[in-house]
């Protein structure tokens, strides 16, 4: 497949200089940007990990079974009884007004004050990422993001022919000084910087949270450099102990586009998320949304709106918190028991632990052996645009039960120990060093520094 | 707003040469393609036409009230009872397998034989248009389409910085010889032609249907010139008398990407449509779909799948046919009674009549007076990329009741007669000529010929 995505030169006369190949007669017709669309490593994994005998620590599926079905069924029945024809019809490209008002209540929990008129409802927050990227990214632009970063955001940036420049994190999230240096360096190279894409709270995949004092500092750096902040916050309400700092958007409304979603606090099957944006950007997001899909699903939006009206949604989020907290704690204690030679982050919320393997192990090369041992994970390389992350693994504790998590980590330990034995046999470098604390998830990427 | 969409030059150093303006501090950060996203004339109209005292002949909303609500409620209840956690979860980027199998049955009604593995479920067929355009359109490319054509398809093409080249129609649809000439001319100018976008059956807005013998001829012209055919078929099953010719896709599976939707035969509120594409293109559409939204709504897809299993969906389409046939006949008889000085198409299906005003009348200029007379329509200019259509109006008979349609056409006649009186007063050119038969909807557009 990869070879097919190479772009064939199209002549001035508009006729391809090479014919279609025998696998794809339209090979020479694709846009240049289509070359940036390739299957992610995570995607290929899903096929493998879906076999029932495999314990998957790979996906990011929320545990929707913790949601009482009658809460959803009751909301649906009310919508169809009271407003059926409206729910079945086209709606506004911006989204249902009542739901946008209710979204204000959700965001208020993280310190955000806003107007419902600045919210655009999207087909999951993923589509907000896509629409925002379509509006802002020219070929050759640079997007700043944490390293590692969310896979499918990077797929979008690449599909608009932009490059990702990673900025390292530590246990308190993105490092402000590293951001400052990175921006200076890229500007010196004459690169166009459009925005900083960040997941400040319970980062995917790193599991860390940006400290409160850093939020203001990073915002200031962005402002000084004329760079928008795209704050992606799917997990913020799913904290385990103390509440995380308020959203970056709570500090500034002109320089931040905030993305939220009901996929993790309710259910992803409805595909309802949103963007909160400064007025002018919001207007363009609505136009882009209308061009792409005419309007988000009236039905999905109205069912969620009714659920928020009828049900104890804050109590339900609390239930989810309890489920994920137990799973996270199970994972950490299993790691301590079975993988003492590794290091990991210990998140206060969200879905993911970021594991660092002992030196010289390669998470991607190790994956086939892991699948043979009936455990699946996402190799760290999936979360870097630059080949970083070979020594890392993202472990998801959101979907498997605590029992499965323990079994999965035990299997993973067998794989890691097997790899270490192998390494030991073929090298005679003495005992392997392990690092218990990672200060930074990646060195400056080789192709960008 | 229009001035704000003008692109500011970005210097080689990556710093905008002009600062943001006071309305939008991010003015200089947008991608070049964002300039192509502007509010359509149809969109602006929706706001006006939604006032209850206005009879709207403008929108394209299906009459969902003709759908018994319990059919939907029963399907939803079954889904939640039997497969709740699956419906609430993320799903495949290609769409639910069972639904894709059922879509084969829908398409078989128009002569299409295909494999479910070549179907990609999308967020309405609108999103299939968007994804296909993202995959194929480079800046400066040309899309061939009927003149007039579907507004929001043209908005998408423009948003990817492509141009639309119109090809005229007559009462039998797109004129093959005109297509041949247009292609030759554009190729001679060195333009890159990527695909022909066509709505062959019950055209939006023209109401005409491509004759059977022309379907093969147009396919052959496309093949000879290495151009894909993008067949958009939302209305094909909504015929009034004899069944229309089979879909173009029924004649060729390698050169046609076919778009279908449940928005008109069931309900648009679910946002479920699909693309049927040759293997290699289908693979890329799945990747583009996953990047844009991760997956289409599991919930919407499973409710529709259950509806197709439980309900007499063919009988329901028959009900819709009856509703729209009555409305179309009411509209035609009202036009005959109230607007004998105009000409119009008389569709055998779909949602729209295309009206041609007497010479020298301007449908766009006339619109404010129409709204004052409490009738709304879409001016013909909305459906041309080149300023054509001033003498035309799209009249929708899908949503208003027959009584409203008669009232609306009577009001429209008052407006037209008022304009004619005015014209008469200010010119002394004697009786106005009217044309009863339109052979072609547009001359070759001035900026492309």
From TrEMBL, chains A, B:
Residues 1-22, 430-449 are annotated as: Disordered. GO terms for biological process: alpha-amino acid metabolic process. InterPro entries: Aminotransferase_I/II_large, Class-I_PLP-dep_aminotransf, PyrdxlP-dep_Trfase, PyrdxlP-dep_Trfase_major, PyrdxlP-dep_Trfase_small. Its cofactor is pyridoxal 5'-phosphate. Residues 70-412 form the Aminotransferase class I/classII large domain. The keyword Iron does not apply. Residues 430-442 have a biased composition (Polar residues). It comes from the Bacteria. One of its GO terms (molecular function) is transaminase activity. Keywords: Aminotransferase, DNA-binding, Pyridoxal phosphate, Transferase. Homodimer. Belongs to the class-I pyridoxal-phosphate-dependent aminotransferase family. This is DNA-binding transcriptional regulator, MocR family, contains an aminotransferase domain. It comes from Paramicrobacterium humi.
């Amino acid at each position: 497949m990869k070879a097919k995505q190479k772009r064939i030169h199209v002549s001035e006369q508009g006729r391809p200089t090479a014919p279609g190949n025998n696998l794809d007669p339209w090979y020479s017709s694709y846009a240049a940007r289509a070359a940036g669309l390739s299957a992610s490593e995570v995607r290929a994994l899903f096929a493998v990990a879906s076999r029932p005998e495999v314990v998957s620590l790979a996906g990011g599926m929320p545990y929707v079974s913790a949601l009482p079905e009658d809460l959803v069924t009751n909301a649906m029945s009310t919508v169809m009884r009271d407003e059926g024809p409206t729910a079945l019809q086209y709606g506004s490209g911006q989204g249902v007004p009542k739901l946008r008002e209710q979204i204000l209540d959700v965001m208020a929990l993280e310190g955000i004050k806003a107007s419902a008129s600045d919210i655009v409802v999207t087909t999951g927050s993923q589509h907000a990422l896509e629409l925002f990227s379509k509006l802002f990214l020219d070929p050759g632009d640079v997007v700043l993001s944490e390293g590692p970063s969310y896979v499918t955001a990077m797929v979008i940036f690449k599909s608009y022919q932009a490059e990702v420049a990673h900025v390292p994190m530590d246990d308190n999230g993105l490092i402000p000084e590293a951001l400052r240096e990175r921006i200076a360096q890229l500007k010196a190279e004459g690169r166009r910087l459009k925005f900083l894409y960040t997941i400040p709270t319970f980062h995917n995949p790193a599991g860390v949270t940006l400290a409160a004092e850093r939020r203001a500092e990073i915002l200031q750096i962005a402002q000084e450099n004329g760079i928008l902040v795209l704050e992606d916050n799917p997990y913020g309400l799913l904290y385990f102990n103390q509440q995380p700092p308020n959203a970056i958007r709570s500090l500034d409304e002109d320089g931040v586009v905030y993305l939220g979603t009901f996929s993790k606090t309710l259910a992803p099957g409805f595909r309802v998320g949103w963007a909160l944006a400064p007025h002018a950007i919001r207007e363009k997001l609505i136009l882009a949304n209308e061009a792409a899909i005419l309007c988000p699903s009236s039905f999905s939006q109205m069912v969620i709106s009714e659920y928020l009206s009828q049900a104890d949604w804050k109590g339900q989020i609390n239930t989810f918190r309890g489920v994920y907290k137990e799973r996270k704690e199970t994972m950490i204690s299993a790691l301590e028991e079975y993988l003492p030679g590794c290091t990991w982050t210990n998140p206060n919320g969200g879905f993911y632990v970021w594991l660092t393997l002992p030196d010289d192990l390669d998470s991607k090369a190790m994956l086939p052996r892991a699948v043979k041992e009936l455990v699946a994970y996402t190799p760290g390389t999936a979360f870097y645009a630059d080949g970083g992350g070979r020594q890392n693994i993202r472990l998801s504790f959101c979907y498997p039960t605590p029992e499965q998590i323990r079994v999965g980590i035990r299997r993973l330990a067998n794989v890691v120990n097997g790899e270490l034995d192998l390494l030991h046999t073929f090298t005679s470098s003495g005992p392997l060093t392990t690092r218990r604390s990672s200060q930074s998830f990646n060195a400056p990427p080789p192709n960008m520094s």
